[in-house]
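hey so u asked for the seq, here:
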Amino acid sequence: MNKLLLTTLLAALAHPALARDDQHMYPIKDALEAPEAQSKLDKNIKLFFGNQPYPKSAKALGEWKTNKKTNAFNKSDKQACEWAFLSAVLELQERAQKEGGNAVVGIKSNYKSIERSSEDEYMCGAGALMAGVALKGTVVKLSK
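ran it, structure tokens below
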């Protein structure tokens, strides 16, 4: 078999695997309770997902979006997605701190600009090489 034909055949067989974009819903609790999350999350910036009730807010400081990707090579989809989710949540907490807030409320998935609101799960897109999580939430300053 000549080299060109072999190369074309291999490229055709590999393409669908590299183009994989599976969408999964994973438990928020698993990601937030992972040791990496526990060591990095800011306990002073509270997180409220979906329609979770939260204390009366004194001031809304704006809605913010995140879109985080991570290397998925040699990781399970869940491992890669939890890492991307943690990065997205940390970015929301950093924004809250920067804006003078102490919580992010109404956090929902916004993968490929499709909103999915859940108190228990987040959406992640996983491929052969990358995984991504997009979130959006409202930064607030909660009353004491």
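Strands lie at 22-27, 46-49, 57-71, 103-109, 121-126, 130-142. The first helix runs from residue 3 to 18.
lmk if thats what u needed
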